[in-house]
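1st attempt posting a full record on here, be nice pls
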Amino acid sequence: MSNAIVRLQKILALEKKQGYRNKSVIGGLERLGDRWQSDASKQATTQAQMALVSQIVSELKRYPTLETVPERQAMVGNLLAYADQWENAGKQESSGRIDAIQGEKPAEQESPVEQTARPSRPTEASEKIEARPQRVSSPPPHSIQPSRPTPVDAETLNTPVDRLPGVGPGYSTRLEKMGITTIGDLLWLPPRRYVDYNTLKPIYQLQYGEEITILANLWDLKKRKLSGGNRTLVTGVLGDSTATIQATWFNPYIDRQLRVGQTYLFSGKVDSYLGSLVLRNPNWEELDREFIHAGRIVPIYPLTKGISARWMRNLQKQVVENWGRNLHDHLPASVRNRAGLLPLGEALEQVHFPASQDMLKAGRRRLAFDELFLIQIGVLRQRSEWRSYPTQRYSLQENHRQAFEETLPFQFTSAQGRVSEAIGGDLNSGHPMSRLLQGDVGSGKTAVAAYAMWTAVTNGAQAAMMAPTEILAEQHYHGLRNFFEKLRLDERPVQVALLTGSLGSVEKAETLKALAAGEIDIAIGTHALIQEGVEFKNLGLAVIDEQHRFGVRQRASLRQKGAPDSNGSDSDHSGVPHLLVMSATPIPRTLSLTVFGDLDVSVIDEMPPGRQPIKTRWLPPAERERAYKFVRRQVREGHQAFIIYPLVEESEKLDAGAAVPQYEYLKSEIFPKSRLGLLHGRMKGGDKEAVMQAMQLGEIDVLVATSVVEVGIDIPNATVIIIEDAERFGLAQLHQFRGRVGRGEHPSYCILLSGATTPNAAERLRALEQSNDGFALAEKDLQLRGPGDFFGTRQSGLPDLRLAQLSDLRTLEQARAEASRLLEEDPDLAAAEHLALARRTKQFWQGEGDIS
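the predicted structure (as tokens):
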């Protein structure tokens, strides 16, 4: 018998003799716990005994909080019972693990069945345990061993999963459905959540809803077929020295894995049935093994049919131990130390099988930092490479500056002036400009872009502007053509042309010929600008509007149109073009540092004078007629309106409004005295242009449309917009729709019609009601939806992120600072200690845009 246990028994006997006054030791039993735990832990030889120590100390510390003698008497009895279990806990058989990876069947879930939990005396529990026959365990499985020696490098992680013992063709196919084909895929498959089963309790203290672990004997195990199917119910009776509780499994093979009379750790959530506490499908562990499924923080992985949670944890445990722990760390030690990060192998182990909540947090932080650091290495190297190319210097002569300002129908705001100076500095720096221009709806970004284009063309270069839709491209074309036709280049007008997919073949051929010959100064277009066969004589500036609609690849393609070797021998170009990308969707700082991390960022944070704040109201569908009445009033006062629907045609799968059928209804039933127009993305280019022209000329009172009007529609006379089924749009998109009104001198309104019931949707609509600040709404949108839905990080060329959150600005800025520092020291990552990082960066960015 352990000396610590004998001492505990003597102290408890004295406490009993003194009448449970907590005077048996100086300072009380709670102080004993602090001193006794250290001695007992040193004498423990099994995990079962360590579990007993933890449980005894927990009870000792709670002892003085018990106010009545019967309560203290019961606890002393429990503590003596735990002491009696010490020898038994030290003699647990070292049997093979029952849950063989190949042999285990996935557990099913089923409805509750009759179960009970009843109290019992310690002596009764011991008698019952002795009476139960022992069952023979299944033979131990083959353990997974690494297929190649350690230390493990990145190439080793490409080993197919079917090389792992226990992963045959069937399991390999199932894993492939989850996107797992290599050992590396397994290591970088983080748990989707965790359950903390560290709380160890005696059965009599269990409470409904707790997630707990108990140390208990399996007294009984029975199985029976359920009526109405082939499902099997397995029930077990679990007992410790304080009480019993029933457990149920819908896994017909559980009786092959558990042995009656054996003591296990059982972990799960306490449920109830017919007034009695029960454990449903609890995880379990043998006491002589390292805990994986119970008695710890347990990882919960994504699964697919045919793969159980227990099988996946066993597989991941072996992979983490044999590969993860020995994985070569690509992050330089200097970076790791400055950032206070765990080594890679330890971080992987703590993310998969955390020793504590703090270690889990530290492991996730390391792996999240990794992803953000690799992003920053990629975008900063791309930025450095882009700036190393030769380019032309452009400066705006004073007479050209004066002509531009005189032609502009308004004065630049101070924000526009500040941004224009920054762009002018870029154009005359000798390095290619690579700048993101952000500004809220109506802040005047297009005028700043016109300033940049004017600077380029006055220096003999061409400029191009690419927009995501034909409607927006045509809007820019008409506006810029009208503006530039008032300016002169050597006594000739500035030539502005439109290039879209809907141009006729003859007109398109003439435009392409004029572009290649340098006869066109400014080309406005869609994706057609980057198609094969489009050549420029001397492209000096590329402008991309609504950049979030394009990916990194499109940005790279437009750059290449101006590369010296991309046009032919007649090219006058002596360097790559400057690049200006614009976004009316305010981009949170975290995204501007990642998706646009290779760009300098300018923000127009001031609205032109006279812009009216838009009053926004969320109405339920039952008040739709109230909204229609308000539109009629606005139309009578000579104003125009938009009504936006999420769909073009009605859908059987989606319960949402559609523009085409609603247009007919609104025209005949709701606004019979008004002039209505219809606009959606499936219309031909000429038809869309005709509708937009009619709206601009005031020939349409109410325009019924889809999201095609999200950007680029400038109707100063429009004062009200109704957005149907508003909950189906993102917050940033709703803000863009709202920006279609309020562009003139009249008060303007946005009405959100929605029966939103989910908290997320309701929060978006309330946020829009309360704020007109696009940047604040963008941050909220990122918080609610995440970066993938914000504007599609995949489309924007950002690699998949497993653990990093782009809302984590602190870690992101730290990663960027460390990446900048490292690249200053070794721009090409050519030093021996950086070669592993160079390989990892290339692997991380493989196939993503123009990052290498």
